[in-house]
Amino acid sequence: MKNLKNPSKVHQIWLGSALPERERKWISTVKQWCDNCNIQHKLWNINDLHEQHPNEPIWEFSNTLPDNVRKWVLLCDYFRFIVINPGDMYLDTDFLCNYAPSIGVNNGKLMSIGEYWDGNKAASGMTCVGENFTKLNELKDAVREQAKTLTIDSLNDMCAALGPLFYRDTCDKLGIKISIIDRRQASHIQWKNRAALVHQGAGSWV
Description:
This protein has helices spanning 21-36, 46-52, 58-62, 69-82, 136-148, 158-161, 164-174, 188-193, and strands at residues 9-13, 40-44, 88-91, 95-97, 110-112, 116-117, 121-122, 126-129, 197-199, 204-205. By secondary structure, it is an alpha+beta fold.
């Protein structure tokens, strides 16, 4: 895989409690990769999101929710698509970076290298947006429209709210092809010791 261009910026989001030491260490490996390759790194917190994205429709609904894990997961599911731009990458905070991954953004694709599992859900734990990807605004608009429909009952299925089921179905509707790694292929030795990026919480790797 030659002539691959690094992302311009890597986004991560942590909301809710203070950052645990485990996640802090994982994030530091991603930050080190970014520093070594001259990539911008942004770890978003709740204040950043309020300040830079104050008019997003998700706020009206999320402000009615108690401060708990479901609220933070919902906001992460939402803002991972809002903060990225063409040429950027989003990574969950449970990714460990062993070395620079062979993933390029010099294309017109949306690459979400996560997992298919349990009824063919498509995860978005790592989303890499090609520089020439033309449907990002359509995807963002779909996320915003979905946020306007959310109710307390819809959180009974977080995957369908703004999570993997919503992501898969929305990409299908928009004609967006996403590249997926099957987590069921994960070998502990392979993904722990040999992979560039390891999704610790899912058992998949890049």
